[in-house]
Amino acid sequence: MPRKILYIDDNPQSIVLVSKWLAQAGYEFKGASSGEEGITQAEAYTPELVLIDIDLGDMTGIEVVQKLRKLPGFATIPFVAFTGNVRRVDREHYLANGFDFHLGKPVTQRELLNVLTQLLDK
């Protein structure tokens, strides 16, 4: 059975690219273009891992993580900050605020898939 990934990003091109990469690798995928839509999708879809951009327009990725962590079943799933904010201080901030991993954009398909494998096969 394919592993379920949710990707929350307000950039439609990023969602299309990541969905293509994940489909090629055999993952099941859902995309959401806002924080609120992402929370709704997460509740309905019950993903095994969530990729979240930080700057979503309606809320921050940190706010999304904090809301999702409070839902049943979301306390232990991996959350990845998937963002162009790549400074060390950014990474530390995201990890201190609910994320399990920080992945900077731009990224290659191989880098993304390596992170997913690492986090899902723990």
Describe this structure in words.
- The protein is α/β, with parallel strands linked by helices and 122 residues long.
- It has one domain (4-120): 3-Layer(aba) Sandwich (Rossmann fold), CATH 3.40.50.
- Helices cover 44% and strands 19% of the residues.
- The protein has five helices and five strands, in the order βαβαβαβαβα.
- The chain has helices at 12-24, 35-45, 61-69, 88-96, 109-120, and strands at residues 4-8, 28-32, 49-52, 79-83, 101-104.
- A five-stranded parallel beta sheet has the order 2-1-3-4-5, sandwiched between helices.
- β1, α1 (12-24) and β2 (28-32) form a beta-alpha-beta unit.
- α2 packs parallel to α3.
- The chain is globular and about 30 Å long.
- The mean pLDDT is 96.
How far is the N terminus from the C terminus? 17 Å
- Give the DSSP E fraction (strand runs of 2 or more residues): 15-25%
Query: If you average the pLDDT, what whole number results?
Result: 96
The description of the largest β-sheet is: 5 strands, parallel
Order of helices and strands: EHEHEHEHEH
Number of strands: 5
Structural class: alpha/beta
Q: Considering DSSP H and I runs of 4 or more, what fraction of the residues is helical? A: 40-55%
Question: Would you give the CATH topology?
Answer: Rossmann fold
Task: Give a quick precis of the structure.
With about 120 residues, this protein is α/β, with parallel strands linked by helices. It is built from 5 helices and 5 strands. The chain has one domain: Response regulator (Rossmann fold, 3-Layer(aba) Sandwich).
